[in-house]
Design a protein that fits this description.
four-stranded antiparallel sheet, 3 helices
Length: 94
């Protein structure tokens, strides 16, 4: 098992659309167990509701625990997903 840190960069946090994309990607990695550890709790990727219940807002730091084949590449892919803006523009300083 390996662990990687990620920071939520989407201004709206991990809500329905990002959750759906993350879970869709997790289904492809069915031989790998991916656990998200957030300040509010933890869950294995597999349930959209469990993931959204973690309430991960912009700036939340999480740990991804990946166990199974190709751990390093899977961990890198999910770190990238959790740090994506998901089509939202970057916040602009006023």
């Amino acid at each position: 098992m390996i662990e990687v840190k990620a920071t939520i960069k989407n201004e709206a946090g991990i809500h329905c659309r990002p959750t759906a994309l993350i879970i869709q990607e997790a289904v492809v990695c069915d031989a790998v167990i991916i656990t998200v550890v957030a300040p509010s709790g933890s869950c294995q990727l597999g349930s959209a509701l469990d993931l959204m219940m973690l309430g991960m807002e912009h700036g939340t730091e999480i740990t991804l625990q990946v166990d199974g084949p190709d751990e390093a590449s899977v961990a890198a892919r999910f770190k990238e997903l959790f740090e994506t803006n998901f089509g939202f523009p970057d916040a602009q300083v006023v």
